[in-house]
Amino acid sequence: MRVGMAGLIVAAALAWGLPDAASAQGRCETQRGQWADQAVANAISLYSLEWTPFGTTEWGWGTYLPLLQKEIGTDCEPGTSDFAAALAAFQARYALPATGGFDQATFDVLKGVLQERRPFVMARVRDECPDPPPLRELGYLEAPEEHADRLTRLLRRDVLASYRRMVAAARAEVPEVRNDPELLQIFSGFRDPEADAARCATERNCDGLRRAVCSPHRTGTAVDLYVGQLLGMGVDSTNPASRQFMTQGATYRWLVRNAGRFGFVPYLYEPWHWEWVGASASYGTP
Ligand SMILES: [Zn+2]
To answer: Can you tell me which residues the record assigns to a coiled coil (predicted)?
Structure first.
């Protein structure tokens, strides 16, 4: 028996008891006439693209999909024509060829857009390294907020207050977070630059010297949040498989959509690392 793609989707929706799946698919196919071919190409490259966005080979671009969807203003999946149309609009906005297809040039623009929202990065571009805050501006985490693998237990007080509001919202809105107290615990907050330098020397963990020379954690506004971990890998493993695992979880996806409400912006390369930039950190189109 020959079954068309639409038939398969409907059959899957019925089998999985997801009556909305077929209509959701329709909702993301309003641009079908123009973008159907590019939708198929995106669906394939999502898993098969071989590239080196950060120096080591990665396959596919699912790790960066939540941030890309947020930025281009769609929750449609890559295999849909509406995703391709939204991506083409983003490409046009940044003077790229509006192909609607994911590629390295589009990724580089996304990376630049996100980096520019981090005042710390902009300071580093100007060759400045922000001073640590005075100790009186730092507050201690409560024990339930500290991850077992923590490096530090201090954060700037205003950032800590925003973090607490964000965690309360995540618990209210995400069952996965509500049911697992480890999720969104902090494993690194304020890090004293001198202690960081000493750690770099003794543990030989210099993170490419960035940590020793000038880490965003010296500001007291950067937090490393537990967003899950791949079995056998660390809470801050930059292994591509580790980062891909983290970004597929409900916790990270919620952060991408909502952390801006609480003043936090993401770092594309590290799903756990967020920086507080102030009360109005909305980023991306809604
Ligand atoms: Zn960090």
So the answer is: none
Q: Which domains does the chain have, with CATH numbers?
A: 32-117 (no CATH), 131-276 (3.30.1380.10)
Phi then psi for residue 56, to 5 deg, are -115, 155
Span 184-202, average pLDDT: 86
Q: pLDDT tens across 16-37, in order?
A: 434 445 556 689 999 888 999 9
With contact defined as beta carbons under 8 Å apart, do 156 and 137 qualify? Answer: yes
Q: Tell me the CA–centroid distance for residue 189 and ligand 1, in Å.
A: 7
* Pairwise CA distance, residues 90 & 73, whole Å: 9
Question: pLDDT tens digits, residue range 77-98?
Answer: 999 999 999 999 999 999 999 9
| Cα-to-centroid distance, 59 and ligand 1 (Å) | 24
Q: How far is the CA of 203 from the centre of ligand 1 (A)?
A: 17
Residue 87 CA, ligand 1 centroid: distance in Å? 29
**The tokens 């003077």 sit on which residue?**
95
Q: From 263, 204, 271, 260, select the one nearest 236 (Cα to Cα).
A: 271
CA of 41 to the centre of ligand 1 (A): 34
Centre of ligand 1 to C-alpha 158, Å, is 18
Cα 273 to ligand 1 centre (Å): 4
Between the CA of 42 and the centroid of ligand 1 the distance, in Å, is 31
Q: Compute the distance from residue 58 Cα to the ligand 1 centre, in Å.
A: 22
Contact between 219 and 273 (Cβ < 8 Å): no
Q: Which 3 state secondary structure label does DSSP give 258?
A: helix
Task: Please give the single-letter amino acid code of residue 169.
Answer: A
Q: At residue 212, does pLDDT exceed 90? A: no
Expressed in angstroms and rounded, the spacing between residue 204 Cα and the centre of ligand 1 is 17
